[in-house]
Specification:
The complex is a heterotetramer.
Chain A: H1 9-27, H2 31-53, H3 76-107, H4 112-122
Helix pairs in contact in A: 1-2, 2-3
Chain B: H1 7-22, H2 27-55, E1 59-63, E2 72-76, H3 78-105, H4 111-130, H5 134-153, H6 158-189, H7 194-207, H8 211-228, H9 238-244, H10 247-273, H11 275-279, H12 283-304, H13 308-329, H14 332-361, H15 369-372, H16 375-378, H17 380-394, H18 400-414, H19 419-445, H20 462-480, H21 482-496
Antiparallel strand pairs in B: 1-2
Helix pairs in contact in B: 1-2, 1-4, 2-3, 2-4, 3-4, 3-10, 3-14, 3-20, 3-21, 4-5, 4-10, 5-6, 5-10, 6-7, 6-8, 6-9, 7-10, 8-10, 9-10, 9-13, 10-14, 12-13, 12-19, 13-14, 13-19, 14-17, 14-18, 14-20, 14-21, 17-19, 17-20, 18-19, 18-20
Chain D: H1 6-20, H2 27-51, E1 56-62, E2 65-69, H3 73-96, H4 103-122, H5 126-144, H6 150-180, H7 194-199, H8 201-218, H9 227-234, H10 237-247, H11 249-263, H12 265-268, H13 272-294, H14 298-319, H15 322-353, H16 364-367, H17 369-383, H18 389-403, H19 409-436, H20 454-472, H21 474-488
Antiparallel strand pairs in D: 1-2
Helix pairs in contact in D: 1-2, 1-4, 2-3, 2-4, 3-4, 3-10, 3-15, 3-20, 4-5, 5-6, 5-10, 6-8, 6-9, 8-11, 9-10, 9-14, 10-15, 11-14, 13-14, 13-19, 14-15, 14-18, 14-19, 15-17, 15-18, 15-20, 15-21, 17-19, 17-20, 18-19, 18-20
């Protein structure tokens, strides 16, 4: 075990959340819950990234009063990555939800196992 | 800088932009745009390849006004240009070969959406091939995933939608792991560009700092990409997705999409981590073992399958196993064999899918083997093409499959510890391949008394037949003149370093 | 001394109306607003039972659940392995994190010359006060170009899945078969409260969104967040007034063209900037005075383009989810 | 230079054209075309054999593996056999195939198999050889399942799987040989690196064994012989004639190439591989004869006989001395002509009478005297009665066996060969005896002469004469063989 687990409590929380989301995505049979798991997973990564960019005692990376010194602001890169990541996650969630809607309209259930069973029964 | 150096950038932007254009065009015009774009990108990649072979050096291209660690970059070498050219050829042929089926399986008002997906898929594949930036790679991996999912479910039957859900779930697990690995890697090195990460990584390795996080991050990225490219235990979504989607989609998905991820993994191995450092980790052993398992279990599932399309899909699992086995050997030769197999498998698998559709068409649309009896006589072109594809898969000389197996075996012989396992599994898997492909070939050439199905002659399937012939030619070219291709791959890998 | 009014007259006065409203004697909206009492949905217990049985029967028929020990074993194995895998992953990540550089420290490898240049020279080189905006739209613009296409491709897939198309040939659209034909039951009632509030709020929301977009290079904000706000405003408007009203100014065609022009502009503008950058040509786009609204080179127009796309996309997602069309 | 390609490519292309050609050719035209192609191919092959002195590299498959052709004595021997048998069986089939369907397909694959066999004979290195070996399997297997009946398809499948499995077993060896040989070009005395051979000797022995087993499949060697007796009866008679006379000899050629030209006889001699190989060959000899003896169906009986006779050849190869090797090569020729004749006569009998079982063929000698005389003569040859070809070859084999340094097999080998010769008499001669001496209760009144047409009898007669000629003038061949055999041993 390394020395920084307690210092990096934010990342640790992110990791735990990531695994919770991961488990949800793997184990839940309900599609909506799976999607929630997915979102938890993504958010965990954003938390992780945000923690990475944070530097104690510095301001958000928006130039105020013309001060452009490195010591004044936190690292802007993780924030940019998070922005991009959020868009990706929105798109993916929308896609997953619309897939879920289609499956629900067709099979009247959100349970993936049940859908698989009905598909087998259809025999196509 | 020569004007040719703009070509990678042009091809990415052109295909990206054509996606936008297609959104306002009717289906037929979108089709034309799509074909032109693929052809144009192919031509550009071809010229670029010739240029690079002439100069013998790779180059980086700024995406913006800022140099390496600050701005985005793309990078082109022989391997990248070759891959792009090859992807374009396969994609063009697959699109042309499956076009007539599109009208039966996709609503006409949604045809232009289909071509948007294809264009964006092409652009994302190109970006994955050319990119020199990890985060760009991640973004385009997502485009790739979503448009692949769209390709699966554009034929809207229950199976495909369910398959699309499964595909998305697995892909998202993969993306999550990839992104997490990426973040850790960023935290350790402070860079997102591949070349800079590589420098930092070698420094880290020398100083011995952050060893564990480094390995974990590499492992996470590898696992993520393995999941996305359907390596053996993560292949549950594959048969339905490839088996029921419309045929062009199936051909493109199996031959290009998974290969895009694999190519990204190769780039990560060479350009991000460094080949030697990667080989010193235990990760290659894991890849090796799963590759071997995939080779056997994929073939076993294919033997049990009763549906020709699903059988071909399961065979993909086995072939992906081959590729990862090549990675797992941890030698240059293994890598070359894997890359050659990427090409060979792409050419063969799309041929098989396109030929299979020709066979099912003359069997009343059924893809069960029992109905396919004698289909080879009813559609001679498809029958011959399917036979050629099967022979390539089985590894008969003169076809591309033989060369890739030969390369794998030659690579395996050089690796002390993994030699026997690799060769034995290679042998078993080849025999299993022979069993299910030859079974199918016999089946389509068995004489049947049933004359209820129509026969198709060349007149009814001109484009389809020409595409099949071209696919066979590509296959035989790869099999007969493999030497230039292998040289090119080696040159390209040398440029990676 | 006031004259005593007759009851009839009194009923016309404001005071009467006011006091009656105060005492709750009459609901002023009665008769003006459609207020059909809605029954709470209660599932028919018999039906539930039947469904349950059907479900079991299907599972039984397909998998032979009672006798299929292998399946049971597989399921339990699958669960156990996935839980173990997740625990393993968690432990692995925690151990990894314990070795990572400490949060908040300034001397981490992350805070290297890359971040340094973004902060120090960002204002000068991109003209954007918001360093993050400058970074994602200028230094690393290729990522962002990809990102907006992720959104685009996601809308395309949603369109494929949920758009209801009129069929010329008269074949049965698989979607229409599945969907409830009477999708107007989801239409809002003439809910006056909602409508009144929406009349006030929607312009404010949309203006706020526009502000965020236009201010993207000067402060927190940008195309995506502003677009999402505008999208929310549109969705609120739709909920309040229904599809018929929104169709007057926002149809699929509008969406298509806005998306097309924004993305085309985005692609072309960025292509120009990439091309000039890579070929070391001089870009004709000025950076402007930092802090002014017309500054930051391409960042402002790009933000507007992204904002339009995002706003339309958000609205399109909602409309698609609701009834498969605009 | 390119002359060497012609006898390979011409028939293959002609075959492909025939297969692809859409029009239904009239029978006559088809026959004439095929006949011309066969003759031209034969002529081309002979020209190539006599004229071409140079090697020829077609292209490089991978960096170190060229597709390379080279003609040596072994090529000449096998190529001559191929040409003669294919021409004879081809002309025979013009008459025979009248009562079969889809003649065009048959001739197409027949021509292709011809070309591929030529390529196999001319192949100058192991990888080229392997290429044509696989192609041979693929082009000959449509001949097996030609009739399209369920048994034929199953037999075809069995043939295919056995052959492919065998080929992969040998491919396994080729993978390693690529690494440990300087070149895979066939060189008398072997090309295995001395360092590799001494370092991993036992491993390479294992490889050699794998390759013997793998290529032995084609030659019907014991553990993997089962495809032969099912494939032969299923195929049309002329196809089984070529199958038995030439195509299975591809396995023999493969073993000669691998053992004598790649590993080198010295490497194998005196090891467990040689012992096992000898044992397997002898087991096959004996078992094949026994099974043939018990088999009532004529063609199947002949197929078992092929199993047994081929292992004579393998025995000779496994002994690894000059006499035995010469005997083997002679037996390749003798058995090729004899078995070709036997299958063609069987075909003629089936064609005229429609009977397949030996018991039904009482008095056949009275009906078809010429055919049966040929049958009897070559049967005697196969048994090994002088002065036919079989006698000479078996003589050399026995001498070689006795002279060989092979432990117990020195005596066991010739003994088993002798027993098997007796058994051969036991399974071949009953047909002659019953055919010519049907017994007292035979109804001579209904007897009618029904000799088949000359298109059938002439090839039979020709091959019979050839087989006798080998026995009468063996010295011509032996002398030419001796020189280069000594370079191999």
């Amino acid at each position: 075990m390394g020395p920084n687990l307690l210092v990096n409590y934010g990342e640790a929380v992110a990791a735990i959340l990531f695994c919770i989301g991961f488990t949800n995505l793997l184990l839940q049979t309900n599609l909506i819950k799976k999607i929630i798991g997915l979102n938890i997973m993504d958010s965990a990564i954003y938390l992780f990234l945000a923690e990475k960019g944070y530097i104690a005692g510095r301001a958000a990376p928006i130039v105020t009063n013309g001060v452009t010194s490195v010591e004044a602001y936190i690292n802007p890169i993780p924030s940019g990555l998070v922005l991009t990541g959020i868009v990706v996650s929105v798109s993916v969630s929308a896609l997953m939800l619309s897939l879920t809607i289609r499956l629900y309209l067709r099979y009247h259930t959100l349970n993936l196992d049940e859908i698989a069973a009905q598909l087998k029964k259809e025999g196509r | 800088m020569d004007f040719v150096c703009n070509f990678p950038f042009f091809s990415i932007l052109l295909s990206l932009f054509s996606g936008t254009i297609c959104s306002i065009l009717p289906g037929r015009a979108a089709k034309v745009v799509n074909r032109i774009v693929i052809a144009a990108v192919g031509v550009m990649s071809g010229i670029l390849l010739v240029y690079l072979l002439g100069t013998g050096e790779s180059f980086v291209y700024w995406m913006g006004h800022f140099p390496a660690p600050w701005g985005n970059e793309i990078r082109a070498g022989v391997l990248e240009a070759g891959m792009a050219l090859f992807f374009c050829i396969i994609m063009y042929l697959s699109m042309a070969g499956g076009a007539h089926k599109l009208f039966d399986e996709v609503e006409e008002s949604k045809h232009n959406l289909y071509y948007i997906l294809i264009n964006l898929l092409l652009s994302s594949l190109l970006a994955l091939v050319y990119t020199n930036d990890m985060f760009t790679a991640y973004v385009f991996v997502e485009i790739n995933t979503i448009s692949a999912c769209g390709l699966i479910m554009i034929r809207q039957v229950g199976r495909t939608i369910e398959a699309a859900v499964r595909y998305m779930i697995m892909s998202l697990l993969g993306s999550g792991l990839l992104l997490f690995g990426l973040c850790i890697m960023y935290d350790l090195t402070g860079h997102l560009l591949m070349s800079n990460i590589k420098e930092s990584v070698s420094v880290l390795i020398q100083t011995g700092e952050y060893q564990i996080p480094l390995i974990v991050s590499v492992a996470l990225m590898c696992v993520g990409l393995c999941i996305k490219s359907a390596l053996f235990p993560f292949h549950a979504w594959l048969p339905d997705a490839y088996g029921y989607s419309t045929v062009s989609s199936a051909a493109i998905l199996s031959s290009l999409v998974s290969k895009g991820y694999i190519f990204l993994l190769i780039k990560i191995i060479y350009r991000v981590i460094g080949f030697d450092i990667f080989n010193n980790t235990r990760i290659i052993d894991v890849l090796f073992v799963f590759g071997l398992m995939g080779m056997i279990f994929g073939s076993l599932s294919a033997i049990k399958e009763n549906d020709i399309r699903r059988m071909i899909a399961f065979s993909s699992v086995a072939q992906i196993g081959y590729i990862y086995m090549g990675f797992g050997m941890g030698t240059q030769a293994g890598m070359v064999a894997s890359i050659f197999h990427i090409l060979s498998h792409a050419a063969t698998k799309s041929l098989l899918f396109i030929a299979a559709i020709g066979l099912t068409e003359v069997s009343g649309g059924s893809r069960k083997f029992i109905d396919l009896t004698g289909a080879g006589y009813r559609n001679k072109w498809a029958g011959v093409a399917f036979t050629a594809g099967s022979l390539s898969m089985v590894g008969v000389p003169l076809f591309s499959g033989f060369i890739s197996k030969l390369l794998f075996a030659q690579a395996a012989v050089q690796v002390e510890g993994k030699m026997l396992a690799a060769l034995i599994v290679l042998g078993i898997s080849t025999v299993l391949n022979a069993i299910y492909f030859m079974k199918t070939v016999i089946r389509i050439y068995a004489v049947t008394g049933d004359t209820s199905y129509p026969c198709i002659t060349f007149k009814d399937m001109k484009v389809h037949a020409v595409v099949l012939v071209l696919f066979v030619i590509v296959n035989i070219l790869l099999g007969v003149s493999s030497q230039p291709v292998v040289n090119m791959i080696e040159q390209g890998l040398a440029m990676f370093a | 001394m006031s004259k005593k009014k007759s009851a009839e007259e009194y009923h016309k006065t404001f005071a009467f109306h006011f006091f009656r409203w105060l005492s709750g004697g009459k609901d002023p909206y009665l008769g003006n607003v459609e207020m059909r009492p809605q029954k709470e949905y209660e599932a028919d217990p018999e039906m539930l039972l039947r469904q349950e049985k059907e479900h079991d029967a299907i599972l039984d028929k397909v998998y032979d659940t009672k006798h299929n020990a292998l399946l049971k074993l597989f399921h339990s194995l699958y669960e156990i392995t996935s839980i173990l895998f997740c625990l393993f992953l968690m432990a692995l990540l925690l151990v990894t994190i314990s070795y990572l550089p400490a949060t908040g420290a300034a001397d981490k490898p992350v805070n290297n010359e890359v971040a340094g240049r973004y902060i120090e020279k960002g204002l000068e080189e991109t003209g954007a006060v918001n360093i993050v905006a400058g970074m994602i739209l200028d230094y690393r613009a290729f990522d962002t170009l990809g990102e907006s296409h992720v959104l685009f491709v996601a809308t395309i897939t949603v369109l494929i899945l949920l758009r209801l198309d009129k069929n010329k040939k008269g074949e049965v659209n698989p979607l229409t078969k599945e969907m409830n034909p009477n999708d107007r039951i989801y239409e809002p009632k003439n809910d006056a409260i909602l409508q009144l509030v929406a009349t006030f709020l929607v312009p404010i929301i949309i203006i706020f969104g526009i502000y965020i977009i236009l201010n993207g290079h000067l402060g927190p904000g940008g195309g995506f967040s502003g677009g999402a706000v505008i999208g929310a405003g549109l969705i609120l408007y739709l909920n309040a007034f229904g599809f018929q009203k929104t169709e007057r100014f926002f149809t699929e065609k509008t969406y298509k063209w806005i998306c097309f022009f924004s993305l085309s502009f985005y692609c072309l503008a960025k292509s120009y900037s990439f091309y000039t950058g890579a070929n070391h040509l001089h870009s004709i786009i000025p950076n402007g005075t930092p802090g002014a609204i017309l500054s930051g080179g391409l960042i402002l127009p790009l933000n507007i383009a992204v904002g339009l796309v995002v706003a339309c996309t958000m609205y399109a997602f909602y409309a698609m989810f609701r009834k498969g069309g605009f | 230079m390119y002359l060497i390609l012609l006898p390979i490519l011409f028939p293959i292309l002609a075959g492909v054209c025939l297969l692809v050609c859409r029009k239904d050719l009239s029978r006559k035209l088809l026959t004439v075309t095929t006949g011309t192609c066969l003759v031209i191919t034969g002529a081309l092959a002979i020209t190539a054999l006599t004229r071409v002195k140079q090697d020829f590299t077609l292209f490089y498959l991978t960096r170190t593996l060229p597709v390379y052709f080279h003609i040596d004595q072994i090529s000449i021997l096998f190529s001559l056999l191929t040409v003669i048998v294919f021409l004879c069986a081809g002309f025979f089939s013009f008459a025979y195939m009248k009562h079969e369907q889809k003649e065009k397909r048959y001739y197409g694959y027949y021509l292709m198999a011809f070309g591929v066999l030529n390529g196999l004979c001319f192949a100058g290195n192991l990888i080229t050889f392997y290429l044509f070996f696989e192609l041979l399997t693929l082009s000959s297997f449509p001949l097996v399942l030609h009739t399209g009946s369920k048994e034929a398809i199953m037999a075809g499948l069995k043939y295919l799987f056995y052959s492919l499995c065998g080929a992969y077993a040998s491919l396994f060896g080729i993978y390693f040989l690529c690494q440990n040989c300087d070149t895979l070009t066939f060189t008398a005395g072997g090309v295995l690196q001395v360092s590799a051979a001494s370092k991993d000797g036992s491993f390479f022995l294992f490889l050699a064994f794998m390759m013997i087993l793998g290529f032995g499949v084609k030659a019907g060697m014991f553990p993997m012989h089962a495809w032969l007796p099912t494939a032969h009866p299923a195929a049309p008679a002329p196809a089984s004639a070529t199958l038995s006379a030439v195509i299975v000899k591809a396995g023999v050629l493969a073993l000669i190439r691998v053992i004598y030209y790649i590993f080198g006889a010295d490497f194998i001699r005196g090891t467990w591989v040689q012992t096992t190989w000898l044992a397997l060959a002898l087991v096959t000899v004996f078992m094949g004869s026994m099974l043939a003896y018990r088999e009532p169906v004529l063609k199947k009986r002949l197929a078992y006989s092929t199993v047994s006779q081929l292992s004579y050849i393998l025995f000779g190869l496994a002994v690894m001395n000059e006499e035995a090797f010469t005997g083997s090569l002679l037996h390749v020729l003798a058995h090729g002509f004899i078995k070709g004749t036997l299958f063609l006569t069987a075909g003629a009998i089936i064609y005229t009478t429609g009977k397949t079982k030996v018991d039904e063929l009482r008095g056949i000698g009275k009906e078809m005297p010429l055919t049966m005389w040929c049958y009897t003569i070559v049967s005697l040859g196969l048994i090994g009665i002088p002065p036919t070809g079989g006698f000479v070859s078996k003589w050399y084999l026995a001498i070689g066996g006795l002279a060989g340094d092979i432990g117990i097999f020195r005596y066991l080998g010739p003994a088993i060969l002798l027993v098997s010769a007796l058994l051969t008499a036991g399974y071949l001669l009953p047909l002659t005896i019953r055919g010519f001496f049907p017994g007292t209760d035979y109804d001579y009144q209904t007897l009618q002469k029904r000799e088949p047409c000359p298109l059938m009898t002439i090839p039979i007669l020709f091959m019979t004469i050839l087989s006798v000629l080998i026995g009468l003038f063996p010295t011509v061949i032996v002398d030419t063989l001796t020189d280069f055999v000594s370079t191999l041993i």
